[in-house]
């Protein structure tokens, strides 16, 4: 069993939902469009961890999320987050609290982690090209981070385990 902490972005679903189901395994297993904060996280988070996360996120102001560009890595097309410094700050704070759970299992140095919303992660170059062309028509995409959530991977897919409201904050 594994878990992940994410910022769900429901505002992105109309633009990327169908593409994600076609080309992102996490979508096919129930995870909504999102920006990952910490994955993998605690294998089986107990109520103490959930309460710590609730306390942690209660001290974080809600903030806008604006996706203005398209990024590419081998086999990946993603939406770039304009507020990457804010998101990266959250990631760094989570890692300071839980240093045993570096982002992506430590595959990248913390300073090299790029906050993003994966649209497709596939070897299919035609799907990647189609995804990039489609999402370009919907940019910029404006959303808001009002809550973080903890997701658990079980035998039958990913399930929402807990949500953590961010502190209310007036968004422009």
Protein described:
The protein starts with a strand and ends in a 7-residue tail after the last strand. The radius of gyration is 15 Å and the shape is globular. The chain has helices spanning 13-23, 25-28, 47-58, 84-97, 125-136, and strands at residues 2-8, 34-41, 63-73, 76-81, 116-121, 141-145, 147-154, 157-165. α1 packs antiparallel against α5. 31% of the residues lie in helices and 35% in strands. A four-stranded antiparallel sheet has the order 2-1-7-8. Strands 5-4-3-6 form a four-stranded antiparallel sheet. It has 172 residues and is of the alpha+beta class.
Task: State the gist of this model.
The protein has 172 residues and is of the alpha+beta class. 31% of the residues lie in helices and 35% in strands. The strands form two sheets. Strands 2-1-7-8 form a four-stranded antiparallel beta sheet. The chain has a four-stranded antiparallel beta sheet with strand order 5-4-3-6.
Features of the shown structure:
172 residues, alpha+beta, four-stranded antiparallel beta sheet, 5 helices, 8 strands
Helicity, as a percent range: 25-40%
Question: How many strands appear in the DSSP assignment?
Answer: 8
Apparent shape? globular
Biggest sheet details: 4 strands, antiparallel
In terms of DSSP E residues, the strand content is 25-35%
Q: Could you tell me how far the N terminus lies from the C terminus, measured between alpha carbons in angstroms?
A: 39 Å
Which consecutive residue ranges, at least 5 long each, have pLDDT under 50? none
User: Strand order, biggest sheet?
Assistant: 2-1-7-8
Per DSSP, the total helix count is: 5
Our Rg estimate from Cα atoms comes to 15 Å
- The helix/strand order is EHHEHEEHEHEEE
Structural class based on helices, strands and sheet pairing: alpha+beta
* Mean pLDDT value: 95
